Amino acid sequence: MGTTIRGEYLPRQMQPRPFASAVWPGSQQQDGEKPRPLALMGEIGDVALLERGPTWERWQVEVVSPEAEVAFFIAYFPGWRATVDGQKAEVRALQGLGIVEVSLPEGSHEVVLHLEHTPLRGGAEVVSLVAVLVVIIMLQAGGLEGWKVGGLKVVVVLGMIIVVGLGGRWWPERDFPANDMTMDFVRMPYLHHNPDGVGFGGEIQLLDYDLPTEVRAGEVLSFTLRWQPPHPDLWADACLVMMGAQRPENDPPPLGCSAFPEIYYRTYHYIPVPDDAVPGLYLVRLRVWDGERELQPHTAQGRPLGVIYLRPVWVHNYRPLSGQEPVRGDFGAGLALSSVFVVPEEDAWKITLDWLVGERVRANYKLSLRLLAQDGSHLAQRDLQPGYGFLPTSAWSPGQLLTDRLRVPFPPDIEPADAAALEVVLYEPGRPPIGSAVIPLRERERVFTPPSMEVFVNADFGGQMRLLGYDLAREADTLTLTLHWQAQTLMPQDYKVFVHLFDPATETIVAQNDAMPLNNTYPTRWWVMNEVVSDPVVLSLADVPPGRYRLAVGVYEPQTGQRLPVTDAAGHPQPDNRLVLDEIIEQPLP
């Protein structure tokens, strides 16, 4: 990834910060391989990585459009240069992903990318060389005897470094077993051997384990842990968790767990891997309990450790799209939501999102998960990357179904039953959202009989929905317009309804409301044919100046802003694709 575990070394254009590289999730065709370059503009055909080194890569790229902007999965830093068929080409950083971008004309081209020195790096090397020369001069300044003594010290030190370096290659390696490796993220956040075992609470030790390195979704992960001494009063709990579970602020739900009630010399664990598990690396988290008290892990020398994780396991899974999946939200950019499940737990909502990936995603998007009350207000919100950062959208393989499991903690004084809908927003940091979807969380009794209403309209909105009529009520500085809609078909979009209070002389809008029906909690995509929905829309008149105003109603597609055409009951098209109501709204002088 070109960075450390703390992310100190990243291009400034790489936002949001990735926690995994573009090859992390993998696919059936590409597990751990260098990903195919992205065609940001235009189209590319056959692509081959001919050879590569630590600071260079050589590609053969076929461009089948007149030109193409191509991004290679190399973190951009100053000094990256490119040649196309031997000719120098401009290299840019792709905003958001922070990777190398090159323009290519039509045809087949050999593209060589290599990292060169920059003036800053060259200057740093000169400074280092000058420092060595200064040390030599200082040694020589002590006279001939001082030079001999100082020079001898330098030779001895250099000789020791060479001996240690070469000796390390020739020294016979100790044969450590691979089945005793663990890590924690407090003291030793890397896999290491434990020849003396890992202790728990000073009462029992994990000696080693028998754990497969890979498993397929839908299968059972079976493994054995070996302990000493036997301690039947203790029990072991092992869970298969995604990368990122070690970060306390994440706390993702595990894929599955296996508890063994009494620890003797061996405990046997079986964890079914869900059919919809995202492909990639997972960790086995191990805890030991005495009743309800968790025992603190520690080294053989008694030094405390954090939660213990065993050697990673690679989960293989590739779920191709059938084309029959339902769509609950279309975000464009080749992304759609197929299904959403929200389950309240002890302290958080557990949210499962099934994504349809239609084409290669050209950015690392963030998610905003927003729980809405019945009045549309926000109860809770959490912004994060898919997979807590370990499932970057730029690595999602086209043509597959991916499942993401996330959690949104309950705020204080909020009951889970207060949530009426979940809004899912996808966006790039610093840019407008590319789309959103609202998922109702409450069972709704569908109504097919129109209620009584003050005014009958029977206006058609693009053959999608019909405004049967409305009720209008005014109280102090509040105007409530209740719109009675009827679905004319199964709608493929989550349309928004606008209500404008405007000055008919100047077309100035003095108050408005733009939202999906029922305060964004019952999107039109969820309506069935002939269903009747009564939607009260409230406008505040507190800041409306004195005057005479009219009300206009319209329906539009949120991503494009395009309004549905409107015809009245007589079939006459309405100007500006809006229906102007008959009522005159008078705002008196204060």
What does this structure look like?
The chain is mainly beta and 590 residues long. The strands form seven sheets. Strands 8, 11, 13, 14, 16, 17, 19 and 20 form an eight-stranded mixed beta sheet that branches. The protein has three helices and 38 strands. It folds into five domains: 38-115, Immunoglobulin-like; 119-170; 179-316, Immunoglobulin-like; 329-440, Immunoglobulin-like (Sandwich); 455-587, Coagulation Factor XIII, Chain A, domain 1, CATH 2.70.50.60. It is globular.
Compact summary:
With 590 residues, the chain is mainly beta.
Helical proportion?
under 10%
User: CATH top level of the largest domain?
Assistant: Mainly Beta
> What value does the average pLDDT take?
87
Question: Could you describe the largest sheet, including whether it forms a barrel?
Answer: 8 strands, mixed
Number of H- or I-type helical stretches = 3
> What is the structural class?
mainly beta
User: How much strand?
Assistant: 35-45%
Number of domains: 5
The end-to-end span amounts to: 64 Å
Coarse morphology = globular
**Can you count the beta strands?**
38
Rg for CA atoms: 32 Å
Low-confidence stretches: 24-31
CATH architecture of the largest domain: Sandwich
| CATH fold naming of the largest domain | Immunoglobulin-like
